[in-house]
Amino acid sequence: MFEGLSDRLSGILSGLTRRGALTEADVTAAMREVRRALLEADVALEVVRGFTDKVKEKAVGAVVLKSVTPGQMVVKIVNDELVAMLGTDAETIDLNAPAPVPILMVGLQGSGKTTTTAKIARRLSDREKRKVLLASLDTRRPAAMEQLAVLAKQVGVESLPIIAGQSAVQIAKRAMDAARLGGFDVVMLDTAGRTTVDEALMAEAAEVKAATQPHEVLLVADALTGQDAVNTARAFDQRLGVTGIVLTRMDGDSRGGAALSMRAVTGKPIKLVGTGEKVDALEEFHPARVANRILGMGDIVSLVEKAAETIDHEQALRTAEKMRKGKFDLEDLSMQLGQMEKMGGIGGLMGMLPGMGAIKKQVEGANLDEKMFKRQRAIISSMTPQERKNPDLLKNSRKKRIAAGAGVDVSEINKLLKMHRTMADMMKAMGSGKRGIGQALGSMFGLGGGGMGGGMPGLPPGMPEPTPEQIAQLEKQFGGKLPPMPPGLGGGGGMPKMPGLPGLGGPKLPGLGGFMPGKKK
């Protein structure tokens, strides 16, 4: 989501930054376009008015218009106001209360409430090391209780035994009693939903709240419903006193208006966002990072955190040592391809890299098939350990055998070997210290350059290491301290290096250079 809004705002603001000086008329015209872009993204009208008025008030001041770089100052003001609209600071689920801590999950039917309840339970169990009990209070929807019980097993937490004939309030009280007796830290109460907000739904949720006195009341809202999600949030907050919002389907093609409006309309923070169907597809909502991505500034911090979560440290150290010695075999390539998949593929990574929006569009426009990664790993899996370590052994007879085992043509194996040779040369150069990962990426994507501690692609060659002041400014821009990279991948000069990206095999694409996955057939 946010892609359409990001493109519009980036285009409007880049027009300002290209000008040497700005007049009040320039700013007014730009704000008119920003207002139109936000309305088209389904942002609430009252929020749009407040946002554009604040930006214009600050942007036409003498400090901006007489600045050396007035266009960039306007971009900074827009970024700051976006962060303020989204909530300034990231807020997580508050568990600072005597155990068992009750958490009431509310929302409309179909918003993903039950699945989100299980996702949060998994997060609290794995990350916070809390003992969690799940209880379904949905006595109306067929198999709702059974669904939560199945999800509880899937995420490794306990669920309240089902007793037919009890009301929602009776189940809630039984859940609290069971939690006290069982020594649970958290009780998650999954309430019933309706297709629309009605009095019966609100009355039942209010009764459960009165009976359990929940420490958190989390509203689960579907980001795809746009303005309806904002109206729903307002209705639930007025009746139940919502403490936080969880937005689902943030990986969908919604225009982002719900996320931008909810915090401003309700005053309640967006605490978590669902980014997929899997039980681990749940992320904290960081306003500063989201604002950066909307304005095309990337999200380095999230990229580094994702790398830190998914990279095997010991394996990274072994790979780094092999790179240092100039060795990079097919087993290493398979590991790199798997790493790329875990981190969201080419599109996911490019969305987090600053200044990569144009290339991302070219990649998407080429109709690339990212399933190519799985096929390439299947080819490598069909080889013997000796063949993976020494690709020179792969003559025609062996290639035919591997092709039959992997269910591909021999030409696919030739492409893979060509990609491996390119990657091996790149890794050898990086291991010798001659090129940073930024330069390697620049070469791969036809950008040229490197610099910034080897961490940022597409910058002019020979750029010096960043100063402590520059690092502090960047950390402020990205909304927090830049976390260190895992061993073997570390950064230079205080800037995190990008995780080692695999060779992106397949035919060359015009204007991109390097190798990308093949087109879909």
UniProtKB/TrEMBL annotation:
<dbReference type="GO" id="GO:0005886">
    <property type="term" value="C:plasma membrane"/>
</dbReference>
<dbReference type="GO" id="GO:0005525">
    <property type="term" value="F:GTP binding"/>
</dbReference>
<dbReference type="InterPro" id="IPR004125">
    <property type="entry name" value="Signal_recog_particle_SRP54_M"/>
</dbReference>
<dbReference type="Pfam" id="PF02978">
    <property type="entry name" value="SRP_SPB"/>
</dbReference>
<keyword id="KW-0342">GTP-binding</keyword>
<dbReference type="GO" id="GO:0008312">
    <property type="term" value="F:7S RNA binding"/>
</dbReference>
<keyword id="KW-0694">RNA-binding</keyword>
<dbReference type="InterPro" id="IPR036891">
    <property type="entry name" value="Signal_recog_part_SRP54_M_sf"/>
</dbReference>
<dbReference type="InterPro" id="IPR004780">
    <property type="entry name" value="SRP"/>
</dbReference>
<keyword id="KW-0963">Cytoplasm</keyword>
<feature type="binding site">
    <location>
        <begin position="107"/>
        <end position="114"/>
    </location>
    <ligand>
        <name>GTP</name>
    </ligand>
</feature>
<protein>
    <recommendedName>
        <fullName>Signal recognition particle protein</fullName>
        <ecNumber>3.6.5.4</ecNumber>
    </recommendedName>
</protein>
<comment type="subunit">
    <text>Part of the signal recognition particle protein translocation system, which is composed of SRP and FtsY. SRP is a ribonucleoprotein composed of Ffh and a 4.5S RNA molecule.</text>
</comment>
<dbReference type="Pfam" id="PF00448">
    <property type="entry name" value="SRP54"/>
</dbReference>
<dbReference type="InterPro" id="IPR000897">
    <property type="entry name" value="SRP54_GTPase_dom"/>
</dbReference>
<feature type="compositionally biased region" description="Gly residues">
    <location>
        <begin position="502"/>
        <end position="521"/>
    </location>
</feature>
<feature type="binding site">
    <location>
        <begin position="248"/>
        <end position="251"/>
    </location>
    <ligand>
        <name>GTP</name>
    </ligand>
</feature>
<keyword id="KW-0547">Nucleotide-binding</keyword>
<dbReference type="InterPro" id="IPR042101">
    <property type="entry name" value="SRP54_N_sf"/>
</dbReference>
<keyword id="KW-0687">Ribonucleoprotein</keyword>
<dbReference type="GO" id="GO:0048500">
    <property type="term" value="C:signal recognition particle"/>
</dbReference>
<dbReference type="InterPro" id="IPR027417">
    <property type="entry name" value="P-loop_NTPase"/>
</dbReference>
<feature type="domain" description="SRP54-type proteins GTP-binding">
    <location>
        <begin position="269"/>
        <end position="282"/>
    </location>
</feature>
<dbReference type="Pfam" id="PF02881">
    <property type="entry name" value="SRP54_N"/>
</dbReference>
<dbReference type="GO" id="GO:0003924">
    <property type="term" value="F:GTPase activity"/>
</dbReference>
<comment type="similarity">
    <text>Belongs to the GTP-binding SRP family. SRP54 subfamily.</text>
</comment>
<keyword id="KW-0733">Signal recognition particle</keyword>
<dbReference type="InterPro" id="IPR022941">
    <property type="entry name" value="SRP54"/>
</dbReference>
<comment type="function">
    <text>Involved in targeting and insertion of nascent membrane proteins into the cytoplasmic membrane. Binds to the hydrophobic signal sequence of the ribosome-nascent chain (RNC) as it emerges from the ribosomes. The SRP-RNC complex is then targeted to the cytoplasmic membrane where it interacts with the SRP receptor FtsY. Interaction with FtsY leads to the transfer of the RNC complex to the Sec translocase for insertion into the membrane, the hydrolysis of GTP by both Ffh and FtsY, and the dissociation of the SRP-FtsY complex into the individual components.</text>
</comment>
<keyword id="KW-0378">Hydrolase</keyword>
<dbReference type="InterPro" id="IPR013822">
    <property type="entry name" value="Signal_recog_particl_SRP54_hlx"/>
</dbReference>
<dbReference type="GO" id="GO:0006614">
    <property type="term" value="P:SRP-dependent cotranslational protein targeting to membrane"/>
</dbReference>
<feature type="binding site">
    <location>
        <begin position="190"/>
        <end position="194"/>
    </location>
    <ligand>
        <name>GTP</name>
    </ligand>
</feature>
<feature type="region of interest" description="Disordered">
    <location>
        <begin position="501"/>
        <end position="521"/>
    </location>
</feature>
<dbReference type="InterPro" id="IPR003593">
    <property type="entry name" value="AAA+_ATPase"/>
</dbReference>
